[in-house]
């Protein structure tokens, strides 16, 4: 497993104030008028936010950057691919239980993060539609892309499609990998407890060798066994399967050979068949039993109806996932590619942040705008800082002020051609034949003299 060289940066173990209870405000009351609408355009009460900007949220992809470094250090493309796949899964682990809405970045807002082995810069390059671009670099890799989250309220759930392509480059190997992220769903907006699920398929392509990794994030719709599960294969350029990948995006990713996988399938089939045999036997016995007791049936109808509920596949009465099962997550001769770090013990009081997320608003001692921190950095956003301190009124006042400022600014800008992002430019991605935002390479020169404060 890629565990080496991971000196986690920890400047604090909690936020200045715990999150405030959301009891006073129901998500349903906010969303009921937004059925079918694009939620990125809707102003929501700050009670539903978490004290981070979406740009910071994107940086959470980097929590397990060491897995990417490890991938770059592998000598053959299949090994590199399996760790790139592990990185793609690891990047989504922090989404578990994160039910607060990050703040929409202001146009021109930036966020930077420097850690031991890499640095990343993000910029909000478009406001309508909201597009956030990022570029991370290290000695071993470049990782960049843009995300345009499409958020829709279906009437029951909030559905999120994070459209956009992400790219990994390993200069040493002359390799480029691309993929798009899976969808996300927040369940139980009307009643019950909110919870988050990610589902869909990621297809990672190594454009130099033709290797592909597919990773299917299963929806727990049919069986609670599938809850949070991820499964897939590494294939060669002829679509020949080489490795089986499996795990949970909340816990770990492992891999094993196709032989061990096939063997495991056979075993499972056997067990299933035996189970089936036993259950038909039981059913026959059951029939006899119910005949004998048929006179009792009517009086017990209400009871049996209640029992029927037990057969709803994946949800308990309040629509929560029933169990987080570990069945067949242990195939013989597997290799652990990535394991999720535990959250801090007090995480649930702090928006379910990971340790990594807890550090994102920290103003490090060497960050002094405008010389050593860009004046547009999200760490300087007053609304986010107010929320972090538990000051809801301040947060909502500042958020409203920034949103108004943004609208006024847009009206003015219509007449001038000064518009446009500062650190990224629009380009064409030849691999995916789609629009891309490419970093211009200048951010870390720290020449911010002409950058106006925007907060
Ligand atoms: C009012 C409440 C219930 C709405 C809360 C919506 C929250 C949970 C939504 C809004 C925007 C969403 C994010 C939008 C884009 C991405 C990038 C993707 O690669 C991983 C998921 C992630 C990070 C989403 C996670 C869930 C998210 C944070």
UniProtKB/TrEMBL annotation:
Signal peptide per UniProt: none
GO biological processes: lipid transport
Coiled-coil boundaries: none
InterPro entries named among the record's database cross-references: OSBP_sf, Oxysterol-bd, Oxysterol-bd_CS
SUPFAM superfamilies, sorted: Oxysterol-binding protein-like
GO molecular function terms attached to this record: sterol binding
GO cellular component: cytosol; perinuclear endoplasmic reticulum; plasma membrane
Similarity comment: family membership: Belongs to the OSBP family.
PANTHER family per record: OXYSTEROL-BINDING PROTEIN, OXYSTEROL-BINDING PROTEIN-RELATED
Protein's UniProt name: Oxysterol-binding protein
UniProt organism field: Drosophila mojavensis
């Amino acid at each position: 497993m890629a565990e080496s060289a991971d000196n986690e940066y920890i400047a604090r173990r909690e936020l200045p104030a715990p999150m405030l209870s959301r009891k006073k405000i129901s998500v349903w009351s906010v969303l009921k008028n937004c059925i079918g609408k694009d939620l990125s355009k809707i102003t929501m009460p700050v009670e539903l936010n978490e004290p981070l900007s979406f740009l910071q949220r994107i940086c959470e992809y980097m929590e397990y950057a060491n897995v990417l470094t490890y991938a770059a250090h592998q000598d053959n493309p299949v090994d590199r691919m399996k760790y790139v796949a592990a990185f793609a899964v690891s990047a989504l682990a922090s989404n578990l239980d994160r039910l607060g809405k990050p703040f929409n970045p202001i146009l021109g807002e930036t966020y930077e993060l420097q850690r031991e082995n890499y640095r990343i810069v993000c910029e909000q390059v478009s406001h309508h539609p909201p597009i956030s671009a990022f570029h991370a670099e290290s000695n071993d890799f470049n990782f960049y892309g843009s995300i345009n989250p499409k958020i829709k309220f279906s009437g029951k759930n909030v559905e999120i499609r994070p459209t956009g392509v992400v790219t990994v480059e390993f200069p040493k190997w002359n390799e480029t990998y691309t993929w798009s992220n899976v969808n996300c769903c927040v369940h139980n907006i009307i009643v019950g407890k909110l919870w988050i699920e990610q589902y869909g398929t990621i297809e990672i392509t190594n454009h130099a060798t033709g290797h592909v990794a597919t990773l299917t994030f299963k929806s727990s719709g049919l069986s609670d066994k599938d809850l949070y599960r991820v499964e897939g294969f590494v294939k060669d350029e002829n679509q020949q399967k080489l490795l089986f990948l499996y795990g949970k995006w909340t816990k770990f990713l492992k891999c094993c050979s196709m032989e061990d996988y096939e063997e495991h399938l056979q075993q499972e089939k056997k067990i299933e068949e035996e189970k089936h045999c036993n259950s038909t036997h039981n059913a026959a016995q059951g029939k006899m039993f119910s005949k004998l007791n048929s006179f009792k049936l009517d009086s017990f109808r209400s009871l049996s109806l209640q029992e029927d509920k037990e057969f709803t596949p994946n949800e308990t009465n309040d629509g929560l996932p029933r169990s987080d099962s570990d069945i067949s997550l242990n195939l013989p001769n597997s290799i652990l590619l990535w394991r999720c770090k535990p959250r801090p013990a007090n995480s649930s009081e702090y928006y379910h942040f990971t340790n990594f997320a807890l550090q994102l608003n920290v103003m490090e001692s060497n960050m002094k705008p405008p010389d050593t921190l860009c004046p547009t950095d999200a760490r300087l956003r007053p609304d986010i800082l107010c929320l972090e301190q538990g000051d809801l009124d301040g947060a909502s006042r500042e958020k409203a002020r920034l949103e108004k400022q943004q609208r006024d600014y847009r009206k003015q800008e219509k007449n001038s051609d000064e518009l446009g992002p500062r650190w990224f430019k629009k380009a064409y991605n030849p691999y995916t034949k789609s629009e891309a935002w490419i970093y211009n390479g200048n951010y870390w020169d720290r020449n911010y003299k002409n950058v106006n404060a925007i907060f």
